[in-house]
Design goal:
Growth Hormone, Chain: A; 2 domains; 17 helices
């Protein structure tokens, strides 16, 4: 089958936005020590530069995905692009840690609109037999952003300053907005267009996430533990409301009656919870412990996402022929082994060892991600593509938040109000060891969900 001009345009638009979002995340990780010095932040405040973006994204992706099914995914996608590019400019102009955190939160709102609708736009435009292939291309663009980010971010931070990263993202945003408004087209009328979802339960979901994440930064104080407990209660109340609602944002039946959907999303949540903070921790480790420049640290870290970008499309195509659970399980197992290896990092660990583990984890992640996404989108019918795309993206970002929350927990407990720059190497390495050990233990559970999800049904064509 030859792809039409419209299909090619959709792939280009979605992959550009996917690249743009992850490029910014990975490049900012490299710039964190420079931001810490420039804005005089402590370790916990520094982690919020990353967490604020993820928190806003996680809060909105689920309702946006549901809203997209009812009102149109293309319109929401375009809105997200505009919000993202404006927030990128504001981030580049920020004069304090509070301003940067606030604008990063706004940036996350824009990302929520594009991420939650991107996969739905792709899947709706292509027949089932090409689903793994196009999702693999999309995932590959995500990893190209992750791969290019550390290298470009390191160079830009070293020679142009950290603000230049946000201004580059602003330029990317303008180009993407022009392409999207010119070529993406309008939404088709659907039989669900006049229905209104019940967003009451979403209030508990959003409040619960905020309480959990903010509470983790206040550990070990009593207030921190109370906030985290309140966050868990908020998520329980959200589930209860959604289960009883006639027009829920989250269809709980997708979890209780659709094992493929439920287990695949749990595997994604666990995988991202275990792997996202790798770049964050290694960026600090390489610049603090090894004394590398932002440029050199970025060159080393690029090894993992580069492998992910190369092999994700291949894994996606294989998942159209081989049951995805086998590929994903092998990938999850490789990630678990790599995380365990990182828990033994010392000040004398060789760069070659670090690069080899990054390559190993990158290959494992490539084997996991595209086949897992293929399973999620293949487990629902067309009328639920938006909510499936939004929920899978929410699981990814919730995993990323969990990963950063674990790091923040150890930073708050071990560093107090000190900055990464002033903390002793011994204490810093202890946080590294505890973090990676925790991630490797979490990842073991992902192996179970990945393998036991079941098989997807192939359509005969």
């Amino acid at each position: 089958m030859r792809w039409t001009r419209k299909q090619i345009s959709i792939i280009v638009i979605v992959t550009i936005t996917s690249f743009m979002g992850t490029f910014l995340v990975s490049s900012i990780n490299i710039a964190l020590p420079a931001i810490e010095k420039s804005l005089k932040l402590n370790a916990v405040s520094l982690s919020w530069i990353i967490t604020a973006f993820l928190l806003a994204t996680a809060m909105l992706m689920l309702p946006v995905g549901r809203l997209g099914d009812l009102t149109g995914i293309r319109r929401l996608f375009k809105t997200g692009v505009v919000v993202f590019l404006l927030a990128s400019f504001l981030c580049g102009m920020a004069q304090s840690g509070f301003q940067l955190t606030l604008f990063r939160f706004l940036q996350g709102i824009g990302a929520a609109f594009t991420i939650s609708t991107g996969s739905a736009i792709l899947v709706a435009a292509f027949p089932p037999q090409f689903r793994g292939r196009v999702l693999g291309i999309s995932v590959s663009s995500v990893y190209l952003g992750l791969a290019f980010g550390p290298f470009a971010g390191g160079l830009m931070t070293q020679y142009l300053g950290w603000r230049s990263i946000f201004f580059l993202a602003f330029a990317f945003g303008i180009i993407t907005a022009l392409v999207a408004f010119l070529f993406l087209g309008k939404d088709e009328n659907t039989p669900h267009r006049n229905q209104n979802p019940d967003f009451k339960g979403t209030i508990f979901y959003m409040a619960g996430l905020v309480a959990l994440v903010y509470g983790s930064s206040n550990i070990p104080s009593v207030t921190g533990w109370i906030l985290m407990a309140g966050g868990v209660l908020g998520l329980i109340l959200f589930w209860t409301f959604e289960k009883k609602s006639q027009m829920p944002v989250l269809e709980t039946s997708l979890f209780t009656r659709n094992r493929l959907f439920a287990y695949s999303n749990m595997a994604a949540l666990i995988n991202y919870s275990a792997t996202f903070a790798i770049v964050f921790l290694l960026s600090l480790y390489l610049q603090k412990i090894k004394g590398l420049s932002p440029r050199d640290a970025g060159i080393i870290i690029v090894a993992q996402p580069a492998v992910m970008a190369i092999f994700s499309p291949i894994a996606g195509r294989l998942s159209d022929r081989i049951q995805p659970r086998f590929l994903s399980t092998v990938g999850m197992t490789m990630c678990t082994i790599g995380l365990a290896a990182f828990s033994f990092l010392k000040d004398t660990t060789s760069i070659n060892f670090i690069v080899s583990i990054l390559l190993w984890v990158g290959f494992g992640f490539a084997l996991f991600s595209s086949p897992n996404m293929n399973t999620i989108m293949s487990s629902v019918d067309k009328s639920r593509y938006g909510v499936a795309s939004g929920f899978s993206a929410t699981m990814r970002v919730l995993g990323q938040i969990t990963s950063m929350t674990i790091v923040t927990f150890y930073f708050a407990g071990l560093f107090g109000n000190q900055s990464v720059e002033t903390i002793s190497n011994t204490v810093f390495l202890k946080a590294i060891h505890l973090g990676f050990l925790t991630f490797s233990v979490i990842s073991i559970a992902g192996i179970y969900f990945s393998y036991n999800r079941g098989k997807i049904k192939r359509l005969q064509v």
